[in-house]
Amino acid sequence: MNLVVGATGVLGGEICRHLVERGRPVRAMVRDSSDPDRVARLRGIGAEVVRGDLKDPRSLEAACRGVRTVVSTAASVHSRQEGDSFDSVDRQGHLSLIDAAEAAGVGQFVHVAFPPVAVEFPLQTAKRAVEERLRRGRLTYTVLQPTFFMEVWLSPALGFDLPGATARIYGSGRNRISWVSFLDVAKLAVATLDNPKAANAVLELGGPEALSPLEVVRLAERATGKTFEVQHVPEEGLRAQHDGATDPMQRTFAGLMLYYASGDVIDMTETLDVLPVQPLKSVREHLTGA
User: Fold this and answer.
1) Cβ-based neighbour number of residue 192 at 10 Å
2) CB 201, CB 273: distance < 8 Å
3) Residues forming a β-bridge with 70
4) Residue 83: its pLDDT value, please?
5) C-alpha 77: how far from its chain's center?
6) What is the distance between the alpha carbons of residues 246 and 62, in angstroms, rounded to a whole number?
7) What is the pLDDT of residues 254-279, one digit of tens each?
8) For residue 127, what are the CA distances in angstroms to 5, 18, 76, 122?
9) How far apart are CA 123 and CA 114, in angstroms?
10) Quick check: 188 and 144 in contact, CB under 8 A?
11) Could you tell me which of 179, 186, 123, 183 has the C-alpha nearest to residue 148?
12) d(Cα 14, Cα 18) in Å, to the nearest integer?
């Protein structure tokens, strides 16, 4: 049995779908407050649905019972319920999940995070604490650290509006980023399961090419035939926002935007030897809907 925590999210749901397609039994952990339509879709593809909450250690013990692998994509930044925080969910919740997995004799734990960032912020502090717990624990683990999901960061929600021909750029926009699709991250996560090459490994994940945000804008202009209006958010302003933030969410978003501004190029050559998933989706394909 394969337990997916964060199953109602876009990445977790895609992982569930791939596992089912491969004939691997899936137990999808959902909360009482989860979107009923997303829960119904999980049942519709053949996943076993179990109620659980990272803030409730007893529910995690039940969810892990009889499980061979645990894959967690859960993060409180995506869905905030009462009592959710980076500490209660992303840190302590995952530490409790690891404890439950160890007690249940789980064989492998796959944790999805992101690459190390130069500045401190609460989400990163939580993710790094979980990674350290896995390193010194009894479980065989794989930590996946994807960069920026193109479906999120190149979307209207974060200021990249393809139909509206506008783009918000954090920093100068000249530093290259290995944008990655969550669809590929799902495939790569499934490829780690029972894979001895992925045992006790930390793998940074990126897409097939590194492009600066301004290069992405030029691609978008060619794809749409429109001239984009570009708004720059200065890095100095982001740093001031980060340093002055008292709210953990604001500090985390400022930290992630500073990460975007600095860029991150991931060489996937060795990782694709370990996880032979190709071809990876390109930014061009994302922009054109291919």
Assistant:
1) 22
2) no
3) 3, 109
4) 81
5) 10
6) 37
7) 999 999 999 999 999 999 999 999 99
8) 15, 25, 11, 9
9) 10
10) yes
11) 179
12) 6
Query: What are the Cα distances from residue 131, in Å, to 55, 98, 145, 183?
Result: 18, 10, 11, 23
Task: Give the pairing of strands 2-5 and 229-233.
Answer: unpaired
The tally of CA atoms less than 13 A away on the side-chain side of residue 25 is: 8
Structure tokens at 90: 């992303």
Quote the DSSP letter at residue 207: -
- The residue type of 89 is V
CB 189 within 8 A of CB 111: no
pLDDT at residue 290 greater than cutoff 70: no
CA–CA dist 119, 257 (Å, integer): 11
- For 149, the 3-state DSSP assignment is strand
Torsion of CA 87, 89, 94, 97, to 10 degrees: 130
pTM more than 0.85: yes
pLDDT in tens, 91-118: 999 999 999 999 999 999 999 999 999 9
In one-letter notation, the amino acid at residue 220 is A
DSSP label of 34: S
Instruction: Say how many Å lie between the first and final Cα of the chain, rounded.
Output: 34
Beta-ladder partners of 169? 232
User: Which whole-number Å values give the CA distances from 139 to 58, 85, 188, 250, 290, in the listed order?
Assistant: 19, 25, 20, 33, 39
Cα-atom radius of gyration of the chain, to the nearest Å? 19
Strands (E), the chain: 2-5, 26-30, 48-51, 69-72, 108-112, 140-146, 160-161, 166-170, 201-205, 229-233
CB 46 within 8 A of CB 4: no
Q: Name the β-bridge partners of 203.
A: 144
Q: How far apart are CA 13 and CA 68, in angstroms?
A: 19
